[in-house]
Amino acid sequence: MKGKRSIKYRTLGDKKARKPLTEDERAKFERYAGEIFSRMGLDLNSPGGRDTPRRWVGALWDMTEGYDGDPKISTLFPVEGPVCPDEEKTHIVEGPIRFTGLCEHHVLPIRGSVWVGYLAAENLIGISKLTRIARVYSKRFTSQERLCHDIANELTKDVKPRGVAVYIEAEHFCTQARGVRELSSRTGTLVMRGAYNEKPLLSQEFRLMVDRRTGAPGLAA
Q1: Which of 105, 15, 30, 35 lies closest to 61 in space, CA to CA?
Q2: Residue 94 pLDDT exceeds 50
Q3: Where are the domains of the chain?
Q4: Which residues lie below 8 Å from residue 1, measured CB to CB, with a gap of 6+?
Q5: How confident is the model at residue 199 (pLDDT cuts 50, 70, 90)?
Q6: Among 22-31, 161-170, 172-181, which is the least confidently predicted range?
Q7: CA proximity to 167, closest of 206, 129, 136, 198
Q8: If DSSP states are collapsed to H, E and C, what string results for the chain?
Q9: Which CATH number is 72-214's, of 3.30.1130.10, 3.30.70.580, 3.40.190.10, 3.40.30.10?
Q10: In the chain, what is the straight-line distance between the N-terminal and C-terminal CA atoms, in Å?
């Protein structure tokens, strides 16, 4: 397509993707994990527990693969009819984008959904790239608050839209499986930038679109 261009993905600042674990590192981590699990009560000699340290190290590596980036994260297309007034340009909202991340405080899962909205200026990003952005930042040690800002930052940096909005609703296993042991609550976080803060009707439009898809009115209130 004429006018199509790609932007190279940038991981945390200018850091490179992680190097694969060496055999020595993997053996060391599995040994440490085995010592911890054994002390907590796991029988490492049982059929079910024998390979648990190895499986756990592999699972933790997979669940933090967001640090490796995603080379397909940013493909841009020009907005059709770029001479139209700003208020008539495209308003895009994508979601729910399901994700599972790891809380950096307890290394327990955060599981929920992301809704991403942006107001196009000169460029549109491929719809699937919004999912890629959400997932590359969620698959790290993170917090829900930071995840909201990370997604907004990446979209702002790549697309340079007139406005960005990110809403996340998630359940935190650190409050479900320990501590207060609250099983029913979900945490909502919202970040709005640019035109969303300048024009209340755009903010309301985003909230209404999210409410329609959650089936639980309240964000637009």
Answers
A1: 30
A2: yes
A3: 72-214
A4: 77
A5: very high
A6: 172-181
A7: 206
A8: CCCCEECCCCCCCCCCCCCCCCHHHHHHHHHHHHHHHHHHCCCCCCCCCCCHHHHHHHHHHHHCHHHHCCCCCCEEEECCCCCCCHHHCCEEEEEEEEEEEEECCCCCEEEEEEEEEEECCCEEECHHHHHHHHHHHHCCEECHHHHHHHHHHHHHHHHCCCEEEEEEEEEEHHHHCCCCCCCCCCEEEEEEEEHHHHCHHHHHHHHHHHHHHHCCCCCCC
A9: 3.30.1130.10
A10: 41
> And the tokens for 143?
């917090």
- What predicted TM-score, i.e. pTM, was given to this entire model? 0.84
pLDDT for 13 equals: 43
Number of residues that make up the chain = 221
| 45 CB-contact burial (10 Å; exposed 0-12 / middle 13-18 / buried 19+) | exposed
With bands split at pLDDT 50, 70 and 90, how would you rate the model's confidence at 103?
Answer: very high
